[in-house]
Amino acid sequence: MPRIDVPAGRDPLLHLWTGTGNELTGPAAAFSDAVYRNSTLPLREFEAARITVADVNQCQICLTLRPESGPDQAFYDAVLGGAAGLTEREALAAEFARRFAADHLGMDDAFWARLHAAFSDDELVQLGLCTGSWLAFGRLNQVFGVDGACRIPLSPHGPGRAERRG
């Protein structure tokens, strides 16, 4: 149930993002869109981080969203089950997202050394910005009780629609 007043017949999520706080929601929505349109992270690493944040946030909708032509269910099971079967970079992307969301102060020098051995600085900044977007906006939607109608307009890294599975 929405925790803001939503006019009768109006979609709560749409109202939060377009009918309130417009000085900030417009730029925030543009940033969220940029994460999906402009990230150059490889899709599987992008998805490893995204699904990890969805798990931390317990966003049931995001947990079931899959990009067109994306990884198979075994990949998502591996990410959520502890990284068995993932590449080093995929596992690190998931670990980064989990730590960012649940233990950001626990990112010690040894962890950063592993990250720097696998990713460029550009990739790490993109990973941080993507993770921050998913964490912040996913939680914002949940805090305001509008997460029941979450929409992701584009699949990561190109045109197409995100598909909901499950």
Report on this model:
With 166 residues, the chain is mainly alpha-helical. It has one domain: AhpD-like (Up-down Bundle), CATH 1.20.1290. The chain is 60% helix and 4% strand. The protein contains eight helices and two strands. Strands 1-2 form a two-stranded antiparallel ribbon. The longest helix is centred in the last third of the chain and has 23 residues. The radius of gyration is 16 Å and the shape is globular. The C terminus is likely disordered.
What is the topology?
Layout lengths: L11 H7 L3 H17 L4 H15 L2 H5 E3 L5 H8 L7 H15 L6 H10 L2 H23 L18 E3 L2
Antiparallel strand pairs: 1-2
Count every beta strand, where a strand is a DSSP E run of 2 or more residues: 2
N- to C-terminal distance: 22 Å
Using the coordinates shown, work out and report the CATH topology.
Answer: AhpD-like
CATH evolutionary superfamily: AhpD-like
Low-confidence stretches: 153-166
Order of SSEs, N→C? HHHHEHHHHE
Give a quick account of the main beta sheet: strands, pairing sense, barrel closure. Answer: 2 strands, antiparallel
Mean pLDDT: 88
Q: Helical region count?
A: 8
Classify the helix fraction into a percent range: 55-70%
Q: What is the CATH class designation?
A: Mainly Alpha
| CATH A-level architecture | Up-down Bundle
- How do the strands line up in the largest sheet? 1-2
> Radius of gyration in whole Å, from Cα?
16 Å
Taken from the alpha-carbon principal axes, the silhouette is globular
Beta fraction: under 5%
Number of structural domains: 1
Q: What is the assembly state of the chains in this entry?
A: single chain
Structural class, by secondary structure, is: mainly alpha
